[in-house]
Amino acid sequence: MPIRPSWCRISVIRFAQPLVSLHTDRRGTVAVMMGLLFPVLLGGLGIGFEISNWYLRTRAMQNAADAAVMAAASNSESNYNVEAAAVAAHYGFVDGTDNVTVAASNNATCPAGANINPPCYSVTISSIVPLFLSQFVGYSGNTTLNGAPEKTLTSAAIAVQTTIQQPLCLLSLSQSGQGIRANGAPNSNFTGCSVMSDSASTCNGSNLQANYGLAHDSNDGCGTKQKSNIPIVSDPYSALAINIPATCGLGTTAYPQEPSKKNDPPLPSSQRWSGSKSFSGDVQMCGDVQLTGDVVITTPDNSTGAVLVIENGQLDLNGHTLSTANGSAVTIVFSGTAGNYTHAPTDNSTGQGGVLNIQAPSSPSALFPGVAIYQDPGLKSGVDITYKGNNPAWDITGAVYLPNSNVRISGDVNKSSNGADCFVMVTNTILINGTSNIYQQSPNGAGCKQAGLNMPTATIPSRSQLVY
Fold first, then answer.
1. What 3-state DSSP class applies to 65?
2. Are the CB atoms for 175 and 194 separated by under 8 Å?
3. Nearest to 121 by CA among 67, 41, 173
4. From CA 222, how far away is CA 206, in angstroms rounded?
5. What share of the chain is helix, strand, coil (3-state, %, to 5)?
């Protein structure tokens, strides 16, 4: 007879079977784990989104700071900070709004180790943002606002305004009034270089066709590109005065002058010139020199050339031509005391005007390299020049240095017959009238380099550059 299980055993088996099934059944495990991990994942994702938001906002602030500091450096004037704030606002960061601060400086510390000349400009943008899920992991921010923890984000940039050196063919040294004026002058052609006034400048009817018209004060109409508030250009050739040979030493009344009255004594024959003159080194004339015929100056070569010093006197072409021979060069120096003398080239003839056709010495070892006419900067009177084009006509290669002269030009200036394309004038003030035509220069001062002249240059602002 078979053995049957008791009811007790059957009950145990029935109870154990579900437990065994539960132990081996893995359905729902993931759901349980996700339920336990979900708060942690949610917090982590929330913090990640919050940190990403900080990063994106900081990057946007950095872009705004970069653009704002470039604008401030390019502006480089007293309202640079207004320029910076306006650019930052264009990027959505308005100073004083939505807890945003935009701070600009024009005396920031330039980055160490960089070859940068101050001033450096800086712009710093700060933004306070609220904390969200980051608080649940214990982060309490780095500032408070109205008693609540907040996060301050900051981006900063530093820039400097670069400059370029612009060669000048016309420089007015006067630091008051109108240094450069032009009335009409449609033919004046400074193409290839620029003009600069250490005070203001005004050109009516023509911009002189200069690459740049520059002025320390306001510039009104001078130059193809016109700029004001340019740093003063110092006298470029005053140091050459030390090379003027010793004075004649004849006293203040012993300098022979051209007769101005019928009974005045004539000039000595040694100071009345015609024909060929051979010069070497320096030649000194005391008092006026007057041409009685065309004169050609011959020197050993056109690099070192020669120096003709006229002390307390004028060079009166008297209707004739003074020229340098091919392969020769000269610097004409007007020196002496203030006195009642004329210290300039003139033409006192009543007929056809004379011509001054000279080129300057080109060698760096010359006493006045690249300078064709040099007025002693110590002279304060008798130095003004009114140039009408036939009083005399100027055909010149080199610099004409008239630091205390008030010059009026109504005629043409051409290059010398044997020289390069180089004409530079340094004056106290200058007025260019009518149809005056000053010849076009070689680009980038190439002609003056050939002529041996170290041209004066002006420092003008260029593009701004990020340095941090």
1. helix
2. no
3. 67
4. 7
5. 20, 35, 45
Q: Residue 218: pLDDT band by 50, 70, 90 thresholds?
A: very high
Q: Are 124 and 65 in contact (CB under 8 A)?
A: yes
Is the separation of the CB atoms in 388 and 411 below 8 Å?
A: yes
Q: Which residues make Cβ contacts (< 8 Å) with residue 8, sequence separation at least 6?
A: none
Residue 33 has pLDDT above 80, yes or no: no
How far, in Å, CA of 360 to CA of 369, rounded?
7
Nearby residues of 40 by Cβ (< 8 Å), 6 or more positions away: none
Q: Which tokens hold the place of 292?
A: 């009685």
Tokens matching residue 36: 């336990």
Q: State the Cα–Cα distance between residues 233 and 5, nearest whole angstrom.
A: 122
CA distance 373 to 344: 9
Listed in sequence order, the DSSP H helices in 162-313 are none
Pairing of strands 219-220, 212-215: unpaired
Q: Calculate mean pLDDT across residues 140-169.
A: 90
In a 10 Å sphere around its CB, with 0-12 CB exposed, 13-18 middle and 19+ buried, how is residue 331 labelled? Answer: buried
pLDDT at 134: 76
Q: Which residues contact 179 (CB under 8 A, 6 or more apart)?
A: 172, 173, 197, 198, 199, 200, 201, 215, 428, 429, 430
CA angle 91–95–97, rounded 5-degree value:
95
pTM: 0.76
